Structure prediction request, 114 residues.
Amino acid sequence: QVQLVESGGDLVQAGGSLRLSCTASVRSFSVKAMGWYRQAPGKQRELVASITSGGGTAYADSVKGRFTASRDNAKNMMYLQMNSLNPEDTAVYYCNALTLAFSWGQGTQVTVSS
Prediction:
């Protein structure tokens, strides 16, 4: 049973922008604090952005001021607007609850060329 589906990843040049989407097929999405995570080659998965059920956000220092998380609880979706991308942002991006309550999706590949 697929719970989380990420989409929107692409190959972009440094300085470009992308908008990622996460579709959640779970009943409890609207009450869950959610996060955007990423995993670069050879590195551990890291949390880059979080968003509470009410829309409050927090960001890792590495993306602060460039990434913006949002959500639409009515549609069971969340988004990550990524601006001023740089090669260090290259990774597979995932969404999940902050408690990691859901099964991981396939992720979406973001590749930033220099």
The chain has a mean pLDDT of 96. The longest strand covers residues 18-24.
